[in-house]
Queue: 2 jobs
Job 1
Amino acid sequence: MPETFTVFINGQPVTAGPETSVAALLLRERMVNRRSCAGQLRAAFCGMGICMECRVTIDSDAHGLGCMTFCRPNMKITTL
Amino acid sequence: MKTGSVTIIGAGPAGLAAAAAAAPYATVTLLDENPGPGGQIWRAGAGTTTAAAELWEPARQAGAQWLGGCRVVAADAHALLLENATGAQRLPWEKLVLAPGARERFLPFPGWTLPGVLGAGGLQALVKNGLDIRGQRVMVAGSGPLLLAAAAFLRSQGAIIAGITEQATRRQLAGLAWASLVSPEKRKQASGLFRQLRGVPYLTHCWVEAAEVQESSHKNSGWLAAVRLRRGNRRWREPCDWLASGFGLAPNIELARLLGCALAPAAEGRPSSIAVDDFQLASQSNIWCAGEITGIGGLELSLLEGRIAGLAAAGQTALARRWLKARDRQRHFARALARAARLDAELRRLPGDETVICRCEDVPLGRLREYHSWREARLLGRCGMGACQGRICSDITGWLWNWQYDTTRPPVTPARISTLALMAANAEKASSSEFIL
C-alpha cells in the first residue's frame, strides 16, 4: 500500500496513510462522526472500540467503527 | 504430544502469555478484535510491537493460530459466534481462556460528551493511530498512573501538556509510593515518567468540574474550548484543544458474564471483576480468566496470570504452580494500588440533572434518579440499551448508586443481521433459548 493516498470524507478528498485510523483522521480534520439520538455532536471518545461514539459509514458498511478501521486508498467515509 | 485445544480471547499481555505458555502442549487459537496482537498497552497502529512479537512468535512457531480483526458477538458452552469485517462464523471451543483486558473508567461531568473530550488512554490510542497533536494544548485529568503514562506519551508526540489533575490527595499518593516499594520495576517506571514530565503542572486533589464548548463563531465551533478546574476552594478556567480524562480502568467482564462466570466479591467503589481460583479457573468449568478481567493489576500481573491460565488450560498444572508465588506478590501490589486510588465522594456531585449518563441513548442523570436498579433503568429508561450495551454507563451507575450490572444478553456487541441469522440457525443446539427483554 502506498505511503499516502486519498480518501473521501462526505465526498471531499483528504490525504491519509495506512497507519491512520478513520477516527484519528476525522479528529485531525475536526469533523464529528455523528449526531447522538438527541442531536448532540459526537466524536471519538474511548479510542478502543468500546463506546461506539466513532461510528460512521465506511464504504458501504453502516455503523463502521472508526477507531478500529484503518484508512485504505479511495475509502469513502460518510459521517452520520 | 498435544492434547486438547485452547481458545484464547484477547491478545494483550495476558492472552499472549497464555498463548505462549499453552502452545507447546495444546492446539491454540488466539483471537482479538484488533488487526494485530498486542492489546491496548502494546498498540502499534496497524502493525505489531516488539514486545507483542516476542510473546507471539514462539507461540506461532509452536503452531498457535491467529484470528485477528474479529469480535465475539455471542457465546455458549459449546461455541463462539464471531464476526469480522466480511462475515461471521461459529467456532466450537473446548477450553477457553478469557483475557479481554480492561476499558477506561469514565466519570461524567457537564460537557464530558463534547467532541474533543476523550479518554486519557483513548487520546493516546488515537495519536498512536495517526492523530497529529503537535503544538496543541492537552489537559490530562482523572486518576491513576495511566494519566502519567498518557501525558508523557502525548508530550513526546509534540503536545503541550497544560496540566495533569489527579483527584487523589497527596496523602493517598504517598500510600501509593509506599506500595510501590514491593515492586522495583513499578518504582522505576514512575520515576522515569516524572522525569519525562518535568515542568508540567501536576495537581493533586484537583479535578475538571466542567468542559466548555467553543462558540459558534469559532472555526472549531461545537468542540471543546476550555475546562473549568477546581482544587479545594480555588476554581479557574484553562483553555485547551483536547481533554484526556480517565479514572483508572474497569475490567471487560461482559463475555465472562454471558458465559455464566461468577463475579468476585464486590469491593466498595471498585468496578466489578470475575472470580478465579488459584489456577485462574473461573466458576464455570473449562473457562480460565487472566489479566485485568480478574481485577485491575497492570502488565506484570497480567503476564503471570496469562501464563498460569495458559498452562492450566493446557493441562500443565504442575508447571503452572511454579508461578503462583510471583503472581501473588504482584496481586499484593495491585490491591494496595486500588486502595490508594479511591475516588473522592465529591466527584459524584459533578454531573447535573441535565448531564448525559448513557451516551448512546442520551439518558440524563435527572431521569435516572427515578429508577432503583440497573435493570429498571434499562427497561424503563433505555439506559445502557444502545450500541455500547452499557459498557460506559454501567461503570458510572455502579459507582454512583452501586447498581449491579446484571443484564448481559447476546449479542454483546452490535452485529450484522447475517451474523444474527447464523446465531438463530444454531439456536436449537443451545441448552436454553429463552427470550428475555
Job 2
Amino acid sequence: MAENGIGASLKRKEDPRLLLGKGSYVDDINRPGQAYAAFVRSPHAHANIKSINSTAAAAAPGVVAIFTGDDMAADEVGPLICGWAISSKDGSPMNMPHHTCLAQGKVTYVGDHVAIVIADTQEQAKDAAELVEVDYEELSAVVGTADADAAGAPQLHENAPNNTCFDWHLADNKADVDAAFAGAAHVTKLDILNNRLVPNAMEPRAAVGDYERSTDSLTLYTTSQNPHVARLVLSAFFGIAPEHKLRVVAPDVGGGFGSKIYVYSEETACLWAARKIDRAVKWTADRAESFVSDAHGRDHVTTVELALDGDAKFLAMRCSTKANLGGYMSLFSSAVPTYMYATLLAGQYTTPQIYAEVKTVFTNTTPVDAYRGAGRPEATYALERVVEAAARELNIDPAELRRRNLIQPDQFPYETPVVHTYDCGDYGASLDKAIEIADYAGFAARRDQSKAGGKLRGIGFSNYIEACGIAPSAAVGALGGGVGLWEAAQVRFNPTGNVTVFTGTHAHGQGHETAFAQVVADQLGVPVENVEVVHGDTDKGPFGMGTYGSRSIAVGGSAIVKAGEKIIAKGRKIAAHLLEAAEDDIEFTDGNFTVAGTDKALNIGEVAFAAYVPHNYPEGVEPGLDESAFYDPLNFSFPSGTHICEVEVDPDTGTVEIVNYTAVDDFGTLINPMIVAGQVHGGIVQGVGQALTEGAAYDPDSGQLVNGSFMDYTMPRADNVPSFNIDTTETPSPLNPLGVKGCGEAGAIAAPAAVMNAITDALGTENIDMPATPEKVWRAAQAAG
Amino acid sequence: MPTVSMTVNGQAVSGEVEDRTLLVQFLRENLRLTGTHVGCDTSQCGACVVHVNGDSMKSCSMLALQAEGAEVTTIEGLASNGELNPMQQAFMDNHGLQCGFCTPGMVMSAMDLVAKNPNPDEATIRENLEGNLCRCTGYHNIVKAVQQAAKTMGG
C-alpha cells in the first residue's frame, strides 16, 4: 500500500481553504455588472392567478426587468420534468402535471413561483417584488397525505383525478402473499407515519446566470450535486441553450443531502433572464425561501404487516403506503417511494414473499423528492419497527428474532423477492459486534437503575440494508428511469509527473478531493499531495452523473480505477521500450515499472515525461499519458449494519435522552476511515432529527408551513445529541474493483428505527409516531400508564 | 448613504452603507470577506459568527453602523502567515468539518468558548455551541476538535 493510500485516515486536502475562509461558494461569486433577482412567491397554498400587475414594481428604483410565466412560455422554455416513468397496477402511465418554471394561471403550494424581479441590487429586487400585485382567487387546499385522494378533496391538477399520480405495486403477487398470511402462526401489524423533512443544507441554494454575447453562450454557477445533469436538463428539456453553448459550474457546495440534485425554477429563470437582459443575474435563497422551495423528503403513511410461522421465521410481508408528492412532481420523485423503497423491504432477512403497493398523491405542499437515504430510510423504518414489534408480541429477544431470520454469509449472491440480488454481507457479524459494544447484556441492570430514578429506559435495534452505488444503467432503464447511471473519470499525468484527476461526481462535504486522490496514489504510486481531483465544472473533464445515493466511490471511484488501468497499460509499453525489454516482462508496483527479475526500473513520473517528450519512444504509441474511462456498475452495492440506540425517558416531562448509540456498519473496503466515520456521525444525527425533533408542519386548512424557519423547525443542535460508538465490519463487494459499497446515507437510514424502537421499548407501547417530541412522548407515557 | 469605519482583521476599513445594511453584508459585499457565511434569516444558524471587540457575535444580528469604531475579526483574520491557528488545525485534525459552510462561524464561536473557558468538558462545549447549526458532522468531531484545541491553546 502506498503511504496515505487506501485505508489511511488522511487529513483532508479541502480543509485548509475552507478553514481559512477561502472557500468559493456560489454566493461568493460575483460577475461584472451583475443584477440581482428576487422571486414573487405564492402566499396561498392553492389559488388561481387572475392577473399580475407589475406596473408599480417596474417603476421602483433600480428595477431592470420583471418576467412572468407567460414571458417564459413565449420563449418556449420547457416545463420542469420528472425523469422516472412509473405505471399504475392497471398499466396506465403516471399522471404527470404540466409544471411551468413560473406559474401560469394557478399556484399549488405556498412558495410557488409567480414572477422574477431583477434589479441593480438585491435589496431593490426584494423591495420591488413586494410591489408586484397578484390577484389570486383562493381555492380550498388539501395538505394531508392520508386524505388527499378522498372523495370531495380539492383537486390540484386536471390530469390527475383524485389527486393521484399513480397507484403502483412492485409485483402482482398479492394473492400468494395473502395465502401465506392466512396460514401464519402469528401476524404483527403496524400503522406508521414517516414524517416530512426539510433537508436544510446549511448553504441555501443560489445561482448566478451569466451570458457571453461574443460566443452566444451561457454559464450557470449553481449549488448543484450534479452539474452535468443540470446542463442536460436545462438544455434538452427546458431548451435554455444547447449543451455545447452552456457551462454549468458547481463550485464549493455547502451540503446537499439530495436537495441539490434537482434543477429548480430559480436557477432556470436566472439563466434564461441573463440572456434576455444581457447581464449576469444572481439569486441567493433566504432560509425562509429554502424552507418552502427546496424539495422536501419522506412523508409516507404506511400499514405494514409481518407473518411468522410457529418458529418465528418470517413467512411473508405486506406493505401498503401512501406517499405525498406535494404540489407537482420533481426530478426523481416517482422513483423514491417505489423502486428506492419497496425493493428494500426484504432488509437483511430471508422473508420469501413480499407484497408492496404505493399510491402517490398530490397535495398543496412543497414538492417531495429524494432526501438523504431516499426511500431506503422509509423501508428500513417500516420493516424494523414491525420486526421489533413482532419480537415483543412473541416475547422473543429482538436480537434473537433477527438472528433467526438473517440471510447467512453462505447464501450470497442472494436474490430477494423484491428485485434486488445482494452481492455479499455478514449481517450476523455486525449484529454481534454491535451487541457487544452496546453492552446489551448489561441493559437489564441499567433499566432497573433508571427505574429506581423514576426514568424509563429502552433499547432499540435497527438492522438496515441499502442499495447504493447507483446504478446499472440497463437495470435503471428497465424500471422506468430516463437516464444511464454510469460514471466517468479522466486521469491525466502532467509532463512533470503530477496528476490531475477529473471526476463526473461532485463533492459537497464528502471529501472526494482527498479520498479519490488516495485511490489514485494507491494505484499509481504517486504521492497523494501530487494528485489533484477536479470536479464541478462541465467545461473541465468528462460528462458525469453526479453525487447522490452513496454512488460516488462505488461508481465514480471505479471509473477512476479503470482510467488508471489504462495509464498503467500504456506506461508498460513505454517502459518496455525505454528499458529494452518485452512488454510482458514489465511489472508495475508502487509507481515503478520494473523488468521482472532485474533491478532495471523506471518510475511512472519518468515514463510520463517520456510520453510528453517522445524522442525515444515506441512505434505506434500515441504521445501523452492521459486516459479516460466510463464505468457502468454491474449491480447496486449493499451496505448494511446494525445500529442500537438506548434512551432514557422522563415520563413526567416527556423528554428523551439518547444515553448510548452504537453503530456497526459494513461498507466493504474503507478508503479513508476518518471520512467514513464523519459520514456515519452526520447521517445518524439527521436520523435522530427525524425521530425526535424534525417534521414539516402544515396548517391543515390554509396549507401554510407553520414551522418554516430555524426558530420553529428544530434541527438537532450540539446539545441535543451525544457522541457515538461506531465501528465497522468488512465484506468487500466482489462486484467493483475497489470492493467498496458507499457510506453516505447509512446513518440516516438506520437511526430513525433504532431511536423509535428504543422509545417504544421504554414506553411499552407501539402507539407513537415521529417526531417523538416531549409532548407526544408524555401523552404516550400517560396513556401507557 | 452614511459612511462606517471600523478595524477588520487589523486593517482600518470604511465604506458607504444603507441604514439597514447588516454587518455581515458589509463584510461580504463591501469588503469581499466571503469567509463569513449567511445560512439563515433569523439569527439562528451561527454561520456568520465573527468577533466584535473580542466577543463572538452573529454578524447578521447587528447593523454595520453599530460596528462603527469596532475591532472586528473574521475567519480570514485567524491565520498567521497562512498557517492554520490551533483551533483551525484542530478542526482539520479531527475532521470537524465536511461541507465547510458552517465552519467559519463554528470556529469563531469555539475560539470565544475556549478563550472564556480554557478547559471545557463535553457538556460545556455542546451547550456553548448550540447557537451554531451543522447539518453534516453530527457535531461528534466538532466536539473532539474543540477539546483538542483547548488543550493546545493552554487550557
